[in-house]
Amino acid sequence: MKLRILLIDDATFIRDLIKRTLKKFLPTSEIIEAPDGRKAQVLLGKQNFDLILSDWEMPGLSGEELLIWVRAQEKLATVPFIMISSLGDKTHIVRAVECGVSDYLGKPFTAEELMQKVQKALLRSGRLKTPQASATQSTGVFSSVEIFSTRGEIPVGSSAETLTAASVTETKAAKMKGTGLIHFEDLQIKCMIKAIDNDEMSVIARRGTRHPGVLERVQIDLSAGNDIDSILTGLAGYIHSIAAVEKKPDAEFLSVIVRFDTTHEHTKERLSQFLSGNSQEN
Question: Where does CATH 3.40.50.2300 sit in the chain?
Fold first, then answer.
């Protein structure tokens, strides 16, 4: 039986990454995407699904509100619902459980963690009869960069180790659900924030026709989650490092570290206020 999975997240980037992982472990599954809770409601009213994967923070209708609505619908009441969110504190997890969530996965996560949750939910509901061996095999410790890769494992000792090793940013910085725009010359690239502090940020960006070079001066706009008030624009910085995530010449994603120019007190103060208002502790 072909599994039909509904994937809901307002970030196209995140949906692409999760879909890629699902397809790797469940290649025959059909994955339907929705950018928000409202669109998900429409799809749930028209089709039957074996599993729902939803972000918590979305415009219009949040993941929590969608979950409450799903559990109130007779035909959807028993459909497995996994909440995937950067809101990993006890309060939010308890709230999700109270609303009827099947399982909870905090961001960032590994491909292995995602598929363990998915398989557990499908087996428990009877929608998957036998475990998928590949979904339970350990692939070792790796960072959320792995979700962006087409490979199942990042081998130790390779150049990819540099991408997954704990940098200064990722060991001491707070993680924040957010996105950014890096402006250079007359172009810009969209990116997803992995970690950030007052000195630098580590991001993942989709490869474009052109990208900035090492030491090139850039302007950065930051946005935390979906709150329009949590936007910081016009930060000065430079590219400290940039490398391909996948070890192939047609790699789709880039790992980038941007250092902020904090020599100006105004810039330093704005960045500090932004981080204190939006960061989540490791």
Answer: 4-138
The domain made up of 161-278 has a fold known as Thrombin, subunit H (2.40.10)
- CA proximity to 206, closest of 166, 250, 170: 250
DSSP string spanning 115-176? HHHHHHHHHHHTS--S--HHHHS------GGGGGSSSS---TTSTTHHHHS--HHHHHSBB-
Looking at the whole model, is its pTM more than 0.70? no
Which residue intervals of the chain bear CATH 2.40.10.220?
Answer: 161-278
> Which of 261, 171, 273 has its CA nearest to residue 224?
273
Q: pLDDT tens digits for 48-101?
A: 999 999 999 888 899 999 999 999 999 999 999 999 887 766 777 888 888 999
Please tell me whether residue 28 adopts helix, strand or coil conformation. coil
The pair of three-digit structure tokens given for residue 95, joined into one six-digit string: 């709230």
Cα atoms in the 13 Å half-sphere on the side-chain side of 243: 16
Query: What's the first-to-final CA gap in the chain, in angstroms?
Result: 40
- Residue 53 is given by DSSP the state E
Note whether 68 and 61 are within 8 A (CB): no
Decide the pairing of beta strands 217-224 and 231-244.
antiparallel
State the fold for domain 4-138: Rossmann fold (3.40.50)
| Token pair listed for 130 | 């036998």
